Amino acid sequence: MEIMTDHGFRKTVKYLRAFIIISLIGMICMLVLFLGILAYAKILGAPPLAVPQSTLFYADDGTLIGESNSGQKRYWVGLKDISPDLVNATVSIEDKSFYSHHGFDLKRIAGAVLADIQAFAKVQGASTITQQYARNLFLEHDKTWNRKLHEAFYTIRLEMNYSKNDILEGYLNTIYYGNGAYGVEAASQYYFGKKAADLTLAEASMLAGIPKGPGLYSPLASMENAKRRQAIILATMVKNGYIQTDTAKTVAAEKLTITGSHTAQRVKVAPYFQDAVKNALKNQLHLDDRTIALGGLKVFTTLDLNQQEAAERQVQQYVSNSSEIQVGLVAMDPKNGYLKAMVGGRDYEKSPFNRAVQAIRQPGSTIKPLLYYAALEQGFTPSSTMRSEYTTFHFDDGQADYTPHNFNNKYADGEITMAQALAVSDNIFAVKTHLFLGEETLIETAKRFGLSTKMAQVPSLALGTSGVRVIEMANAYSLLANGGKRVNPTLITRVEDYNGHVIFEKKQEAKKVLDPAKAFVLTQMLTGIFDKKLNGYAKVTGSTIINDLTRPYAGKSGSTETDSWMIGYSPQLVTAVWAGYDIGKPIELTAEKTYAKNIWAGFMEEALEGKPVKSFTTPKEGVIGVYVDPANGKLATKDCPVRRFTYFVAGTEPTEYCTDHLKNENPDAKKEKVNKKVPWYKKIMPWS
């Protein structure tokens, strides 16, 4: 045996010492690097956990009405809202040491490396739930070293900043289960038609097996493979102490019913309303398109499903399938502005253009209540009279002559009251009032009522020749229905982010903009279109639907050559309906001219069915009611054939009694009782 020389021994010791030093330096560098990574991860803090999720829309009763997504169904749910069986099955098959490791299972990694070496191939995975979650959140699913290093870093950040339950919740909400379902809630809804919280052990154990290979282990792809995978999962649950062997055998033999469809795909409610909601999220709440589509928001709306169905049903019932007429309808609660129903057209698939909020159409005579409110402010009363006859208006400023016409060219050819003019929609009375008040008055009044469209300062404005939106007209009439308070049209009551944090909540706001007494007086005048007692030289404009109505309503119809309107309200509901052709084609068929009124009447009756029958609340002060003869607006006597109880702003009620129907009196005596005083407006408007 050769004896090592001193020189050789010293050389060996030298190399050994160098190796130890280099190893220590390397270990120190590795330790410094590791500590540096930990420090950097700590400095960066908690990584955001937001992932693309479906935004969900709910009706006012909490019913899901739709969702916004890009083909990926994602619904975030808390760990408490996931079946414990699914949680246990997932942990058991994916990462049994999840609760004890710090993001990496070193024993599992060593076992996987050994198995791969023995098989000379990649045969066993070693990723923990935290690693998989990091990959799902932040990385692509490639197999490069760069991706693996990033995955490890994100894993460290997750473990440093979140609890095990937070990580497990996130993982269960992000893994892919096939068929566009991301996360346990979407998968549970798709495969079993139920919430993740309601899954049975049999369903949970099958669902837990799908992520390994959705194309292979989905029960829709292969029930045989799915059952085989389920058996493996049940065996691991037995081994890890989650269930007993007998339970596993029973569950494995259980036959399951697979749904195979996304719940939200069956939900296609109020598409025009949902579009309006998305537009409000963008323009009123200032959310970007991506957040609206994939932010996992929960949007709680004002939609009343029963009223929405009633609106769609009435449109379908009255509008002929062969007609090209379109319809816009808005129904809202006048107390708070909540939109309860919306129809933007007859077929969303053919035309998503929303005529309820986007179209600008001439309102016709539905603008007159706004004009007559302004008149009440200037001292007019329901009994104010003007002469209704064929009239041509001449102007001194070079403006062309203007000759408005009544419907069917019918005129009273005598004095009529403002209440009667409104009930029969007399155009001569309206234009005279408009010109007397000043053409700018109606424009300013329309702004106070919330109309935003530009209006032309012309005589014909009194007859609704400047375009408006259906939704704004419904809102304008709500001021009359609620006693003069402005409430903005509201579609959204609350918005939550994917974590359930409230990012928007509607505050109740109602600003007084009208005098309650005058608003009530005008409302009472608007009930006249449904009052047969007000028939005079022409029928009241609501005569064709009077027999269909079972409760007090106020309202006004309107028509132009190309537009047909009906707007009216009860104390609980305001509804505006427009019907017409998109291209502005004249409405010529008699049946088409009745669509708006019939739809309005049918909808109001159906929407309010079962609700208390309410009359309009009389203000505690500022109004007084008296019986008048509707033909002349004077105080009615017992001899008047028609007596109508009429409200006036206190102090403006008539003081003169009607003498047109006195009995047993000679004509000369009767004439002496007639007030010879020239009305105040005749001094200003001799052409009246």
TrEMBL record:
> Which compartments does it reside in?
Cell membrane
Instruction: Name the Gene Ontology biological process terms.
Output: cell wall organization; peptidoglycan biosynthetic process; proteolysis; regulation of cell shape
Q: Taking every annotated instance into account, which residue ranges of this chain make up the domain Glycosyl transferase family?
A: 62-237
Going by the entry's taxonomy, the superkingdom of the source organism is recorded as: Bacteria
Indicate whether Transferase appears among the record's keywords: yes
Domain (Penicillin-binding protein transpeptidase) ranges: 329-581
Q: Which residues form a coiled coil?
A: none
Protein name (Swiss-Prot/TrEMBL): Penicillin-binding protein, 1A family
Q: Which organism is it from?
A: Neobacillus vireti LMG 21834
